[in-house]
Structure formats: C-alpha cells, structure tokens
Amino acid sequence: MVLVTGATGYVGSSIIPLLLKQGRTVRGLVRNPSRKKDPNFPDIELVSGSITNPNDLASAMEGVTEVIHLVGILLEQGNATFEQVHHQGTAHVVEAAKAAGVKRFIHMSALGTRNHADSQYHQTKYRAEQCVEGSGLDYTIFRPSVIFGPLDDFVNQFATIIKRSPIVPILGDGKARMQPVWIEDVAFCFAAALDSPETISKTFEMGGPTAMTFEEIIDAIKTALGRRRFSLKMPFSLLRMEAAVFEKVLPKPPFTQDQLIMAQEDNVAKDSAVWAVFDRQPRDFSDGIRDFL
Length: 293
Hints:
This protein has 293 residues and is α/β, with parallel strands linked by helices.
C-alpha cells in the first residue's frame, strides 16, 4: 500500500490516478477529506489527520510499504508555520514511516531549496530534505520549479487578472527566471520513481524545457488568452512595504515578504537529468497553457 500525504491537493490529485493504473492500493492522508481540488478525484481510502500530529501518522501508516510525501505550504497561517509543516512535519512522517517498516519514500521539495537560503520557505524545505536523507529509508527527492496546469494557483491567478484588468503587475523588473513544469510531467515522475531503483538516494531538480523570465511568462499567458494588456513594473521596495502591511492586517495576504524574496531569485534547474532518467520530454509552457486557458 502507498500512503500519499496531501492526497487531495493539486499534485496529489494528479499522482494518485497513475498509482491506481499501476495496480497499487492507495491511502490518502488529508486534513479535510471533503476539500478536493479535483471533482473527479478517485474513490480511494482517505484518512483524516495532520503531519504535525504523530498520533495521526501512526494509524495512517498501518499496512503501508511506500510513502509519497507532498505536504507543503506557501503561506504561514497561525500554527501552520514553515518550520512546523515543512521541517517538523516531515520529521514526523519519516519517523512514522520507519516505525511502520516502510522502505520506499518519495519526497516533494522545491527548486531553490538550499542551505543558508534567504527565504524561510527554502530554509525549512532544506531542513526537511536533511531529515529524509538521514532517515535510512530508500528515498528519492524531487525539487520542481513552479508547477502549471488546469487547476494551478499560478497561471490561473494571473490569467484572472489579465481577463479583468487593463493593467497587469510585474514583480520588480520582471527579469527573474523560472522554469515552469507541467503537472502531468511531475506526477509521472513521482509515480514512476516507486519502481525505479536507480533513483534511490538521489535528488532531482525539475524544470520545463525552457527557462523564462517572469515578464515572458506573463506575455505567454496574454497570448494564450488573446488579450492585450499593459504591464506595470512594481519596484520590490514598494512591494515589500505593501507585504509588511498585508501580513499585519490580512489573515491571508495576497503576497508576503518571504515570497518576494523568492521572486527576486532565478528558479532554474541546474540540469535536465530527471528527464533522461525517466525517458520523458517535458511539455512546453506556452503549448501547455493553451490547452486550459
């Protein structure tokens, strides 16, 4: 049996159908089983629990032989901090997996994760990776760049702005580069890794075929929608002041200071080794977004 944490999230909803096609039995660990991004989510066993509660994990691991750990957050809210979810939560999942006799562990990290990163997001993702690497489990770690697809919170957010507003904000000078990767390419690798012994004890960076500046990404979305819009470059100095205010007065700010730190960095994979290992050609960004925009 495979346990998938964050099963009903965006990535989990795409991985689980592939696991079922492989003939695997799947159990999903979710905080709220009723909150599914995909209305066509497969009829699998869902158990309610939190990775921050070791007691929930002990029962969820019963009969499990493989784990795909996907849980992560982009925004801290209350007790759900980066440290609690990314680092401590992963440590709990690892310990529960070891106690249950699990051997195979697939972990979702993020491109840009590294020691001494400027952002708390990347720092805690790095500490989570250290837990996995030191676990003694047969692990594989994936670090995807921004993931795009029909239900994403990235392309669709900017598509909504482009549809509704004559002006589209550009973060900073718009020159920071990203390497958007198609959701189905990511899901394929996660599912295939379970049967790929050559990926054990490896960390793979995942990016699409093209590195694009933020401005080029916005232009591609405009083109896919057939809309002409004026782009307004917003200085990071101004955005940081706005973020500081948002974080104090809004329960769910539109962007945070930590996110702005990451937005100023290039987010590009150092190599394309993952696609060679899985013998897969990743989908082009402009081609992919035309399908759902």
